[in-house]
Structure formats: C-alpha cells, structure tokens
Amino acid sequence: MKVIRFFFLLGLSIFLGYSLNRPWGKVPALGHFLNPFEGFWQNATPRNTGLKSPKTIKSKDLRQSVDIALDSSHIPHIFAQSDWDLYYMQGYMTAKDRLWQMDFQTMAAAGRLSEILGKDSLILQFDRGQRRKGMLYAAEKARDAFMSVETSANMLKAYAAGVNAYIDQLNKKDLPIEYKLIGYRPEAWSPLKSALLLKYMAESLSSSNADLENTNALAWLGKKNFDLLYPLMEKGQIPIVNKTNQWKQSTNLQEAEIPFSYINMPLDEGPNPLNGSNNWAVNGNKSETAYPILCNDPHLGLNLPSLWYMIQLQSPDINVIGASLPGAPGIIIGMNDHISWGVTNAQRDLVDWYRITFLDDQQHQYLLDGKATPVENRLEVIKIRDEEDFVDTVKYTAFGPVYYDRHYRAEEARSGYAYRWIAHDPSNEVLAFYKINRAKNYEAFKTALSYYQAPAQNFVFASVDNEIAMHVHGKFPARTNHNGRFLQEGNSLENGWKTYIPFEENVFEYQPERNFVFSANQHPADSTYPYFITAKKYEYYRNRRIFQLLEEKEKWSVSEMMQMQNDNFNLQAAESLPFWLNQINTEGLPHFHQKAFLALKNWDFHNEAYEKAPTFYAAWWKELYRLLYDEWDQKGLPLLKPSHYTTIKILKENPDFYFFDLLSTPEKEDAPAIIQLAFKNAMHKLMQEEISGKKLEWAAYKGTYLQHLTRIKAFNIAAPVAGNAGSINAATQRHGPSWRMITALHPEGNKMWGIYPGGPSGNPASPYYQNQVEEWVNGQYREIPFFKNFNATSNYEIQHIQAKVK
After folding, report:
1. Which of 72, 210, 341, 424 has the most CB atoms lying inside 10 A of its own CB?
2. Cofactor comment in the record (predicted)?
3. Domain containing 204 — which CATH number?
4. Per the annotation, where are the binding residues for Ca(2+)?
5. CB under 8 Å to 186, separation ≥6 — which residues?
C-alpha cells in the first residue's frame, strides 16, 4: 500500500509540475503566475505600484545627471541638461509606467498578435489585415525618414535607449502583470516601434473611408437619391473656417469617372466612427484674464491603460508639458512658456481604393496604361506562437498594396482592390513635434507644422502674444470632383494622386474678428474653397453647440471653460424631438409609454447622468433609425447608412420619402407612421428591460466603462459619466474625452488644468491606475504644476528621483 501511495504522489507531483508550468490554451502557466516570489503578487508591492519610487536610477547611457520630480498625481517632471538625457529619461519613465501598453500596441500595429497570443483565426485575420494595408511597410518608411534627419534620429535613439535601460533592469518578478498572464517577455525597443505607434494613431485617425460602400450605394440608389442621402455638405452647417470668396485661387474641378458595379465581399472593420475631438481658443478680447484660453479634449476609445501619458520635459532649450503618447518622444498636446496647442481629427478621406485587373491567375502582372506591369511581391511572415509561420504574399502596385484579392476575402482570380493611404508616404512627425514643442510664437509654430503630414489634424494655437489660430493641416491630395469618393479603376496612372494641396493653401484662420477659433470634426471650409473635399462622415451637432456658446458669451473664465467642456446639451434631440412628439397619439398606450412621453415632453435636452428622458430618446432614435433603413440591412452589400442629421432633415421635409416604407408590412408607411411605430417598439423594449431589473437612468443605461487592452473584465473600471456622442461632453459606452485640457496663457506664466480617465500607471494594482477616474466622471480638473526649474519643485509635496551616470 505504501508503494502504491508513493507512486501516486510521485505521479501527481510530476503532473502538477508539468501542468502548472505550461500554458493551457488561453490560460497562462499558473505555476509561474501564482508564484509568490515572481508571479502576480509582486505587481502589488510598493516598488511596482509607484508608492515607493527609487531615490536614484543609474544608467551607463546617460551623459549627465537628471532630476525627476513626481507630483501628487504621479506625473513626472524631468529636468535634464541635454536633449539626449531628456528624451532618454522620457523613455525610461514612460516604460516604467506603461511598458506593456507600449509593447502590445506596437505589436498590434505591426500585425504580430499571433506571435504572442497563439493560433486563433480572428487574430490571424487581424494580423493579415494589418500587413495587407501596409502598416509595417508604412512604419519602415517612416522610420527611415525619421533616421535620415539628425534631430529626430537622436530623439528616437535616446528614447529607445531609455526604454531599453528600464527593460534590461527588470527582473521576472517585476514584469507587468500582462506579461505574466500571457506568458511572454518584452523585446527591445527601437525607432521602428515608435514609428509603428505613430502609424497606429494614423490608422485610428486617418484611414476612415467609404469608397466601396459609396460605390455600392450609388449603383443601387442612382445619382439623384444618392445625392439626397449622402450630400457633400449640408446647409446650415458651420465650417471650421468660413472665408467666403477669400481663397487665393480656384481650381477647375473635373468630374471623376465613377464605376457603377457592386462590390460584394465582407470588408474588414475600420476605425471607430466616433473618433473625433473638440478644441477651441479665445483671445484676450473674450477672456477674463485678457490673454488667451485654449481648450482641447480628444475623443477616442476609453481604454486602460490610458492612451495618454502626462509629462513635463525641460532642458536648456525647452520647457514643455502635456500629453505624450507612450512609445513616442515629445509632447503631442500641451504648452510651453510661450504657446499652447491642441488637436482634433481633420475629417478628410485620405484613403482611395483602386480595382486592379490582373493579367494572369497567379497575379504576377496587372494592366496599367495599356501595358502589362509586374507587381512587387512583399512576403509578410506572420509568426504564430507554438505553430508554423503563416506567409502571406502581398502584391504592391502603383496604387499601393492589394488589400483584397482571391487570397483574402475577394473571390475573383483576376481582380484585386489596392489600398492607397496617405500614411504610406514617408514623413517626419517626430521632427514636427520637436519643433512645435520649442515654438515661441505663431510663425515658429506654423513653420513646425510644415513638417507634419499624417494623421491630418485641426491644430488650435494660442500664444502669450495674444494670438490665436486654427490650422487644418496634413498632406492632402489635390482632388478632382468626386475623386476619392468611389472605387476607381487602377488601370491608369491618371487616376492616381498627382499633386497635393500646397501648405499655404490648406484651410487656416489667424486672429479672426470674432475673437475665437474652434473645431469639432465638422466640414473644414465653406463651399468656395477651391479643392474638392470629402470624408466618410462629418460631425453635425457638437460643432454648432460650441459655436453657439462661444459666440453668445462676451467674456470667459477658466472655470466656465471647464463647464463648457462638460456640457451635456443634446442638440440632435432639441432639433428632432418636438417634431417626433407631435406625431404620437398617446391614447390607449400603456402606462409606461405615457410616462416616457411625459418625461420627454418635459425634458430640457441635457443628457444628465441621473435622468431617464435621455434613455427614452436614445432608444427611440435607435429603433427609428433601424426601421428607416431596413432596406440597407436586407440588401446584403457593404453599405453606409445616411447620417443622423440628413435623416432627421428628410423626415421633416420629405415625410413621404419612399424609403420610409417598411419592407416587412403590406401597408405603405410614411414618416409619422414610422415614428409612432418606433416609439411603441422602443418603449416596450425598455419596459421589459426595467421589469427585468435594468436601470433606465442615463448613466446606468449607457454603461460607460474603461476597458483594459487585454479585455480582462477584472481590470475594467465603471465610469458612469453623463453626455452622449453629440454633446460637447461626447461620452458613449466605450468612447469619449480621453484627455480634457485647459490652458490659460499669460506673460507672467502659463497654467494648465487637465484630467483623463485613468491614471499614470498601467499597473492595475497601483493606486495611480485609476486615480483620476472619479474626477473625470464628475467633470472636475486638476491643476498640473508647470515648473520653471527643478528648484521650484521644493514647494510641493513631491517625490524626487535622481538619474545618475553609471
């Protein structure tokens, strides 16, 4: 019996030793993960949570000592004696707080998730899509452009050296918890990884397009209906810059050739259509301080760790503070001693699709200008964890990489769809931000912008010289009429991008008479602008609310700007709900429906967190929109539905529009009938949800939360914020203001207030992981100290770290 017991325990020990030290599917190796000396327990120690930072950091790559101050929000303020040491320590401190985020985001950008996550058909499809759209190719070209200029090359080398210094001193126990969960280690940082991060942002902000969907819609609807449902610019909109007849030249816009055939294949998902932002600035004539106030809040995915990393950078020729991107040197949104700036996304179509005609089944050659032209094959090797590599051959043409072909989603042997994207072009945004960070006046800022290409942004500017400006800037193709709005034939170079809008002819505004500038992803210019402009979508509501508030108030204070950034007024509801309510006959409706009707009738159109009326409106609109476009859902083609603004306009002005008739009923419905039916359906669904226990107060119903990049629910954080997609406080369930910033400029010293949904640390066990979430939800701000020098930090409760040469 003892022998049997011995062998049983021996076998159990061997089994446990084996099973606990290898991953099982998506489950990590639990032996390593649960190890009290190296596993996840170590991520909760004071050393790794940031509660106890080291007093000194030693590195052989530093050239001189560097002083670092961590303020009460745990924001690092770096004081260096050279640019090399400044960006070195920016890399080090960012990696200290956000290493896994930096690593994972660039792996995703490069199409390398299979390498760390293993075999999975959806992950492999994602990786293939990244390679086929040319993400790695574009990053390599950008890296080469960065490294060809000494200034940007040194920035990236120093930053990478700092990141790698942090990685090299990591023990297994100190690895971020995500590495332990997934079971891998970080690889060395490089300038290519920084380039990948910037292409990741370009993909999010400048790859949105609807060429293929528009082509289908035009072929299906005909030109008359297409123009009605998808207008280039709606009447009554307020562009970013309105300079009627003030543009320098006019361009003869020739009609582009438009193919009239369907594209019937599943398309990869594009960037979030809600990606956008607000920014504005008032000059001293509209400010209680007599100097400019500038505001910015980029609307992006509400992820954890936060997209942004706050930091101050000071060396002999720079003193700048603001939001950086983990993985790239410098400040993206912020201020220095002289100027402040911010960005919103410029809604421009910077992707064109071309139908390629191959001349052989092997797709070695394609037709171009009447000649057989060889493709350039790029072998994309996708490593798969614990599996053989997957090799995808991507064919490059004069119009970019062939994204869809018979090897990926499309079926035709001799047809493909090439993807021409502005971010494929080499550019040097690192150098642009280097110069923006150091700009001392408007002319220097404008010169810095000339180095910037993608993603296209609306740059707001203010200075201590009482200047304000707005520049819609990027590298924009000079398009012919409708060029880029539909699929084009890739059989002639004449259809490609031949010229670009000159820098001085991009849309801009300097010192306007109204004393303010603003943007919120709306149309950039009035109809007299000489170049053809198109985009997948524009914003129609936030921008007009911002304009209304800025125009009607004579003087603004910083506290009033804070209130404005948190404004929850729903302009779409204000313009549509009265009309809808007039179509409702409440007689005979259930009690719940009648209560909802009364709540909507008495609503002031503010999407406040504690009210039910915003929920009633949102549910009604969702159902109405679904019913109106049932034909789109049943068509079985990639199609883009008309905008909310256009839909509401047609409901009011053309209630008998034939598309309002439901396919599923024998009756012929008009707008009033559809509005009534949508109300009944939506309220019935809400009634059932309330009976089942779901809360209908707006914040609870919307359910905003911050999602960790691993999608592990335990790392998520609830954020019951007010607002909606169309309000200035544009918060939806998974999307919203990723950083709220207000700067007040003054010759005696600039000040900054800011807040973001998360915290500096990427460690879920750290108190600095979510130390700003509650204030962000409540619309509160923190004043962010901006130190003139290191000695000034002595007046604050602060942790001091000294980096020394080893």
Report:
1. 341
2. Binds 1 Ca(2+) ion per dimer.
3. 3.60.20.10
4. 349, 351-352
5. 99, 100, 103, 167, 170, 175, 179
Q: Are the CB atoms for 416 and 145 separated by under 8 Å?
A: no
The answer to whether residues 555 and 579 belong to one domain is no
Q: Cα 381 to the chain's mean position, in Å?
A: 28
User: CB count, 10 Å around CB of 679?
Assistant: 26
Contacting residues for 477 by C-beta, under 8 A, at least 6 apart:
350, 352, 422, 483, 484, 497, 499, 500, 501
Within-domain flag for 80: yes
Strands 309-315 and 76-79: parallel
Show binding-site residues.
349, 351-352
Q: Are residues 589 and 469 in the same domain?
A: no
Phi, psi of 652 (to 5 degrees): -75, -45
- Catalytic residue numbers read 277
How many domains does the structure of the chain reveal? 2
Question: Does the structure show a pLDDT above 70 at 696?
Answer: yes
CA atoms within 13 A on the CB side of 169: 13
* 328 and 425 fall within a common domain: yes
| Residues in contact with 302: Cβ distance below 8 Å, sequence separation at least 6, in sequence order | 704, 705, 706, 707, 719, 731, 734, 735, 736, 738, 757
* 300 & 392 share domain: yes
In 10 A of CB 316, how many CB atoms? 10
Neighbours of 139 (CB within 10 A): 25
Residue 755 falls inside a structural domain: no
Contacts of residue 453, Cβ cutoff 8 Å, sequence gap at least 6: 422, 425, 427, 429, 474, 475
Co-location of 503 and 624 in the same domain: no
Check whether residue 513 and residue 575 sit in a common domain: no
pLDDT tens digit sequence for 502-521: 999 999 999 999 999 999 99
Average pLDDT across the chain, whole number = 91
21 inside domain: no
Question: Residue 19's pLDDT is what?
Answer: 46
Closest residue by Cα to residue 162 from 80, 48, 50: 80
Q: Amino acid letter at 262?
A: Y
Closest CA to 508 of 525, 483, 485: 525
Digit-coded pLDDT (tens) for 351-398:
999 999 999 999 999 999 999 999 999 999 999 999 999 999 999 999
Structural domain harbouring 401? 35-566+790-806
pLDDT at 23: 57
**Tens-place pLDDT, residues 550-596:** 999 999 999 999 999 999 999 999 999 999 999 999 999 999 999 99
Q: Is residue 737 part of a domain?
A: no
Confidence of residue 244 (pLDDT cuts 50, 70, 90): low
- Taking each helix axis from N to C terminus, what angle separates 591-601 and 571-581, rounded to the nearest 10 degrees? 130
What is the pTM for the complete model shown? 0.93
- 199 shares a domain with 166: yes
In 3D space, the residue among 437, 202, 475 whose CA is nearest the CA of residue 341 turns out to be 437
- Start-end of H helices in 353-441: 429-438
**Could you tell me if 596 and 556 lie in one domain?**
no
Domain boundary among 661, 696, 731: 696
**Among 52-61, 205-214, 364-373, which is the least confidently predicted range?**
52-61
Element spanning 345, H or E: strand 339-345
CA 105 from centre of chain: 13
- What is the rounded CA–CA span in Å between residue 686 and residue 706? 25
Residue that finishes a domain, picked among 642, 662, 696: 696
pLDDT by residue (tens digit) across 114-137?
Answer: 999 999 999 999 999 999 999 999
Return the exposure string of 81-110: e unless at least 16 CB atoms fall within 10 Å of the residue's CB, then b: ebbbbbbbbbbbbbbbbbbbbbbbbbbbbb
| Size of the chain, expressed as the number of residues it contains | 806
Of residues 490 and 10, more confidence is placed in 490
Alpha-carbon distance of 385 to 530, in angstroms, equals: 52
